Give the backbone structure.
Amino acid sequence: MRAIFDTGRSKELFESAKSCLVGGLASSLHKGEYEEYPIYIECGKGSRLYDVDGNEYIDYVGGFGPMILGYCPETIKDAVIGQMSRGSQFAAPYELLNEVSKKLVDIIPCADLVSYQSTGTEANMLGFRLARAYTGKDKIVKFEGHYHGWSDEELVSFGADSLRMMGPRKRPWKTMGSAGQREKALEDIIVLPWNDLEAIEDTIGRRGHEIAAIVTEPVMCNCDPIFPKSGYLKGLRELTEQNDIVLIFDEVITGFRLGLAGAQGYYKVTPDLCSFGKAVAGGFQLAGVAGKSEIMESDVHPVGTFNANPIAIAACGATISELQRPGIYEHMTGLTRRLSEGIREICLRRDIGAYCNSAGSICGFALGVRERMNDYRDTLKVNRIDYQRLRRACLDRGIRLHPTRGRLYLSAAHTNGDVDRTLMVVEEALTKIVKR
């Protein structure tokens, strides 16, 4: 194993940043909870990142998901540079927008029409508004631990570290770090446990006349790995169809990661609306909503200066073209499965309590649990201290993992050699730091 990296320059830059950035960071997720300072990145190429001290990392953060083709792919670079030579912002339609939008309508199962925003937060705000406009009802059902953005109405019942903080099931609770959030923002949000169709049936039976939409991550990707029970998403689809309720899939993470058709194609369940973002533009800022025409045309007009920005749309078109190449998803899925199975085999052989699984190009693992988790409260059993020790040990040896949880994003640029190196580092790190 290599010696621990020297990251002195990163420490200096972080100290300097504290004088001009809140907390010294552009996002609180840019630094692990137990880190003194974050690593400053100089550049990225393929599956690798390089920091300001000259250290090299095999990266599994993937920009928190967007870098599905890896860093600086030539096709995206060429598309973006070509568009920049023609103009970066018009405040007017352009032909490429039509071409890319038609591609998205062809790819996304629920899409008759698409509407663009810049972030996943905005896209889900639009989904809520469309559902209310279409149904004439106000309440939105969301699930504990599902993240749909940071606006007042979205950031509800997410991010707790104890059952005491969460309180009783079916009662909204405030997220840590949500100072300034209006209490009234919680009034139209109904919170339920995930993977529990009986809870949905009971709530619809009592309050279906109030509920405009049910919004769900098809796979819980904003916490430790939680996958839908067999038949659960199908059950949601049937219950919403029977009760004039809009079903929204938040595919900001799963979209394009589980395949071109996202979780809708992967699980063969088609919602009424879906939000998308992250991987859709291969590293550029683009998000939106796709859905049935009768809902999308509900007299909601989401204006935004940078909606469908030409640079992002050019990147989106190039990303889709690359993802449509034969074999690319087989490559990513195969590597992801191999990494997941490798981590699982290491833990079994070493008698280390862990759960690991994958879907598409997303691998999720959790330490301290041996069986699959079904809802957010199950994740309180996860050993987060050992995960942070593992993450630090891996980072010191050139493997970059997610700063807060075991979610790994692979890309088209990752290789079998990357997986081999990663499994070697993970095994040595786990053997040293995890108590049986």
